[in-house]
Amino acid sequence: MNIPSKVVEQAVEEFATLPSIGKRSALRFVLHLLKQDPSDLEDLAQAILKLKNDIIYCKSCSNISDKEICDICANLERDHQTICVVEDVRDVMALENTYQYKGLYHVLGGIISPMDGVGPQDLKIEELITRIKTQNIKEIIFALSATMEGDTTNFYIYKRLKDFDVKATVLSRGVAVGDELSYADEVTLGNSIKNRTVFEI
User: Strand, coil or helix: what is 87?
Assistant: First the structure.
């Protein structure tokens, strides 16, 4: 791509590092930003810096938050005996958008994937076990992607639950095999959590 400005070229390179953004889309973003008022660009730059400097992760569930304990965990009206285990914060947002789930969450930060060098020690699994030990948890809902890696992670956690009096359930397979949870439509996802089934191996 022939760009007559090194400054623009560098900006394009940075935008192109974002997921699903190619060089052409990145160039469109950069040329659009060039037309904006300097104050608008400063607002954008400040918002990006705040993402890195001000966002923290909930000490309880690892969801993104502005406080040490996120609004979901702090909400006394939610079911504090049920934890829905998800891969990342996008899944929390997807499930919250269904308005069907009223329990708590636990964000693992990924799934077990030996091909990618991700093992149980790289995820927030020990933190989940600690919550089960120290809180009055009655049900764990596995809401990981319906993939081999997701199923492997479910199975690993399920084996870790054998010493606890806790019910393990999984989303009904309204979410197609191979699909990522965050891409499921709200109706399908809502029905999947309402019609969850006992996890069996």
Answer: coil
Question: Angle CA(87)–CA(150)–CA(19) in degrees, nearest 5?
Answer: 55
Q: What is the DSSP letter of 28?
A: H
Q: Is 11 helix (H, G, I), strand (E, B) or coil?
A: helix
Confidence of residue 178 (pLDDT cuts 50, 70, 90): very low
103-112 pLDDT tens trace: 999 999 999 9
Domain map of the chain by residue range?
6-53, 57-198
Mean of pLDDT over the chain: 89
Q: Which residues partner with 168 through β-bridges? A: 140
Return the biggest CA–CA distance within the chain: 65
The pLDDT, as a whole number, for residue 25 is 95
Angle of helix 6-15 relative to helix 23-34, nearest 10 degrees, comes to 120
Sequence-ordered list of residues with C-beta below 8 angstroms from that of 18, at least 6 positions apart, any chain: 26
CATH of range 57-198; options 3.30.1360.40, 3.40.1000.70, 3.40.1360.10, 3.40.50.2300: 3.40.1360.10
Phi then psi dihedrals of residue 11, to 5 deg: -65, -40
Nearest to 147 by CA among 185, 182, 123: 182
Q: Note the pTM of the prediction, 2 decimals.
A: 0.78
| Amino acid, res. 194 | K
